[in-house]
Design brief:
The chain is an alpha+beta fold. Helix content is 20%, strand content 35%.
Length: 84
């Protein structure tokens, strides 16, 4: 088992702020990544599957996006919010 690592990176363009939150935990399968933001989708025994759903909806209501990419090394959630 590898040591858990979390990386947070923040960047800014002339039009947006980009926040990447990454961890080196287990890969999220491609099929799950495609559905991870749907309500009630969870891999946790006691999870409700609402956390990412609510987060994405809140970010989108502010004109932003929330995406996820996962491979054998890293899982990265990217939040892009417009500068206003």
């Amino acid at each position: 088992m590898k040591n858990p690592i979390i990386q947070i990176e923040l960047d800014q363009t002339t039009q947006s702020v980009i926040l990447d939150i990454a961890n080196n935990g287990p890969r999220i399968s491609e099929g799950l990544v495609d559905n991870i933001f749907e309500p009630f989708v969870t891999t946790k025994e006691t999870g409700t599957g609402l956390g990412l759903y609510v987060s994405k909806n809140t970010i989108e209501k502010h004109g932003g996006t929330l995406t996820c990419q996962s491979n054998d090394e890293w899982t990265v959630f990217t939040i892009i919010l417009p500068l206003k």
